[in-house]
Description:
6-stranded mixed beta sheet, 4-stranded mixed beta sheet, 35% helix, globular
Amino acid sequence: MSRDRLPAWPAVPSGQFPEFVGASGVWLHTADGRKILDAAGQACVANIGYGRKEVAAVAARALEDFTHALPPFATPQRLQLVETLRSKWLPLPLTRIHLVNSGSEATDAAIRLARSYQLCKGRPERWKVIGREASYHGVTLGALGVSGHHARRKDFTPLLSKVPLAPACYPLRCELCAGQQGCNLRCADGLEALIESEGSDTVAAFIGEAIVGTSGGALVPPDDYWPRVQAICRQHDILLIIDEVITGFGRTGRRFAFEHWGIKPDVVLAAKGFTGGYAPLAAVITTDAVIAPLVENGETMMFHTCGGHPAACAVANEVLEIIDREGLIERAAQLGAYLGLKLEQLRDHTHVAQVRGRGLLWAVELVRDKSTLERFPEKAGLTLAVVQAGLERGVLFYFGGTGEHRDIICLAPAFIIDTAAIDTMVDVLGQSIDAAIAGLGFISGD
């Protein structure tokens, strides 16, 4: 096919999406003059809203002061960010911070850190990192290898880790919970059984999202799930890696989602809300106890050339200051409760299986048959149809699911959103679901 017949962006065309030419507050501006309410925060990224001039100003100053410095070198921006995180954001014993560019890179770095830690502890047989079903930790091969995202894994299976995945904590569709009223923690027992079957002396770490983001669609575990998982990891001397790429920096109404359950992870991954989308930056955050064996053995952590870019660090400092100064975590908790109440109106919808979430991270799971939880056929492409219907009505939603788990619509607006915009989001979501399902009428007899 001639290159002139293909759109210029993206490299591999995927769907009919509008061209965005600007953004302000919670609104995206299109090339054809429309305003789109961003109910998704793009991909759960936006938190302080778009177009904050003070953020652009600190980035410009940083680019003048320090165009680039390799990650091992200290700069004022990096040192200030570390101090900000330690003094205002990170609960003890989380004190050590390694900066990269994206959540995917952070996952890869955490996998390497777990391996280096075990090697430096004199346990070379410990190399396996266990992930969970219905999860997503990034697009790199290392991150995909510990992710339970069928659609993104399937073409690359020969290149991925062969370590089995542990059961998801997904009570709606959990075979272990079938017939039960809620979660019975058999999924946590399944993790322990997997560790024992693989040989606990071969496992370096377990990785999981504190609240599963878009792959499972705001899967909030019961209160005793994470304490049980932490106890299993401690019992078997396995590092506990908590992925907060989506949920970190206030998204769920706490600084980090793991704080809802009072656990103490060994490693935390952070990205997205770190800079609110104003610059690429992510972090692997860990403890002195994890770093000490590396220091004693003269090891270091590999870095990316632009990891912890000074301008990105300056942006993160400013974004975190805005979140703190404007009380946006508390606002996320309050408006998240309001959003949850508004979404209640969809619970009785014929095709809504579940509404779930916390803070400003919510999801609606759609089914063909509510009594059996039968999904719509994959070929129907219902999730994308709902997103497209929303765009036509002036609201951007996010497509969730893993391919195997599908027809999940996610909402993750910026923390500055107001109740009127939330009302619009929910009303348009209902209309979009109805329009998308009506458009699938031809499959009703399949």
